[in-house]
Amino acid sequence: MALATVREHKVRSVLTVLGVIIGTGTVIAVGSIITGVNGVITETTRSFGPDTIFAFQFNIGFRGDITAEEWKRKPLTWEQAQALAERSPSIAHVAPYLFSPNTFGTGGWIDRAKYHDKDLYNIEFAGTEEGYAEGGAERMLYGRFFTDGESRRHEPVVVIGEHVHKALFQQIDPVGKWIEVNGHQFQVVGVMARMSASFPGQEDRRVLLPYFTMRKMFPNAKQIMFVIVGRPGQVNRAMDESQSMLRQLRKVPPTKPDDFWLSTGNQMLEDFHRITATVAIVMVAMSSIGLLVGGIGVMNIMLVSVTERTREIGIRKAVGARRSDIVVQFLTEAVVLTGMGGLLGMTLGWIISVVFRIIFPNLPTSVPLWAAALGVLVSVGVGLFFGTWPAMKAARLDPVVALQYE
């Protein structure tokens, strides 16, 4: 009977539960996208290896803008990286990563790579050492990574990322060819493969020089990040040693907080999960507005239905229907109505998930079980909650009065 009522008023039924469709679809879509992003971020942070630690002047984790206090901090230095590697028994090696002056907006120009008539702007330009390839577990498509010897001799060699290779050289082997980077000539010795666990839509625009070559040719580059690789199974101990040693090297008083940022991939992952959890809560709260509007629409249409079927209710009561029978009848109609809206909303959310997966192939969106279960429970709950008053109103009708209703 409930399904027959929906079939008789198709357009009215869809418009009534439109808010439920939008609210449930939002929960499903947001849940699937967050699940996909969480998977990508998890794989990306783990791709650095379980024993990798990052140290930097600024907090570059998943958070807001750089604070004024962080800008006042002194940059890390190459000497501190060497002391850290030599004095900490739990650390295998430390690779300094010298950012371009433009990375944090202090250089005054845009980093650019050029080969013949092809230009690529906004490259990720930096200088590092051979240990970076070990810490980042780099896979080479062409050639090799530069050596520490080439760094100490200030040789003009460069390793480029996969997207830089495609933009400048198409499909040819670039090893041995010379490119221009910010007005300086460098010989390409290798091409790094894009990390399999990179962010959705992320392009590998890395252009890496040997550390001392970078420091010689770009003396205004100051910000250095440390890629610290701990010995197997000793990452926690390496973390403690790194913090203690850096405080000592940077002469931080015991009563003062750290004037540097230190984190592992797992800690960054936990920070990101906290952010996505907050986003999920906000989105669910916003979608509840649609559910509220849908619930009010359901209540309104059920009240109209009670008025339209007053005579039917009188007949049912006259032949022996109890109040509970009338309540169950109208609650069933309300639940069927919102339940169908929930199913349509789940379909809408699944379609959005598929569209995102097509647009961003690296984003493995999937509808999580918790989102599907929540969508069903919420839609049924909306029907029960907002259908209760119309059902009770129908159950309280006097059969004599109801039979006389025109």
Q: Would you give an account of this structure?
A:
There is one protein chain. The protein has 406 residues and is of the alpha+beta class. It has 2 domains: 175 residues, no CATH class; 186 residues, no CATH class. It is built from 15 helices and 12 strands. Strands 1, 2, 3, 4, 5, 6, 7, 8, 9, 10, 11 and 12 form a 12-stranded mixed sheet that branches. Helix 1 packs across helix 13 and helix 5 packs across helix 10. The radius of gyration is 31 Å and the shape is elongated.
**Given the structure, what is the number of helices?**
15
Number of domains: 2
What structural class do the secondary elements suggest?
A: alpha+beta
Query: What portion of the residues fall into strands of 2 or more residues?
Result: 15-25%
Helix content: 40-55%
Main sheet overview: 12 strands, mixed
Q: Whole-number radius of gyration?
A: 31 Å
Termini separation: 22 Å
Low-confidence sequence ranges: 196-201
One letter per element, helices H and strands E, the order comes to HHHEHHEEEEHEHEHEEEHEHEHHHHH
Shape: elongated
Mean pLDDT: 80
Number of strands: 12
List the helices and strands and how they pair.
Elements: H1 2-8, H2 10-16, H3 18-47, E1 52-56, H4 68-71, H5 78-87, E2 91-99, E3 112-115, E4 118-121, E5 124-128, H6 131-135, E6 140-143, H7 148-152, E7 157-161, H8 162-169, E8 178-181, E9 184-192, E10 206-210, H9 211-217, E11 224-230, H10 235-249, E12 261-264, H11 265-308, H12 310-318, H13 323-359, H14 369-395, H15 399-403
Parallel strand pairs: 5-10, 7-9
Antiparallel strand pairs: 1-11, 1-12, 2-5, 2-11, 3-4, 3-8, 6-9, 7-10, 8-9
Helix pairs in contact: 1-13, 3-11, 3-13, 3-14, 5-10, 11-13, 11-14, 13-14
